[in-house]
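Posting this for the archive.
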Amino acid sequence: MPVKEHFFMDSPLGTLTLVHTDGVLSGIYMPSHLRGPEVETLGSRARSGFEIVVEQLQEYFDRRRTAFTFPSAATGTAFQQRIWELLRGIPYGETRTYMQLADAFGNRAAIRAVGLANGRNPISIVVPCHRVVGSDGSLTGYAGGLDRKRFLLELENAPMARQARLL
């Protein structure tokens, strides 16, 4: 049986809930996170074991880190795993559209499924689902809320975030 623990971290986005499964980061959830897990599934509250995750997230929020190096593992279907891997390939400060992700997956008709997989990403920020925007550059769907998505894109100085602000 996997061992789960959780830890609370203060951030510019509010208190983040970090989740480890067997010592590997398996979730980052924001306040009022859509489709977030039930509290009873987070495991016991930890007092330690999250130091490297907290340090790297703080560096990210301070604009001193553009990539994460700690191990993480999200639970999902094979399709979701493939989409989340594509998300990891979006560079810091850049965005992609849902259509571009569907094309990268190799099936443009899968655009809605790509959007659903993106929305089910349990490791927000680290698996950068916030870097996915609508075809017109609009900020669409984000489990943490569009204000947080805008904040993250502006933090990264992503070009479509600046464009979307003008809409």
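The domain at 78-166 is CATH 1.10.10.10 (Arc Repressor Mutant, subunit A). The mean pLDDT is 90.
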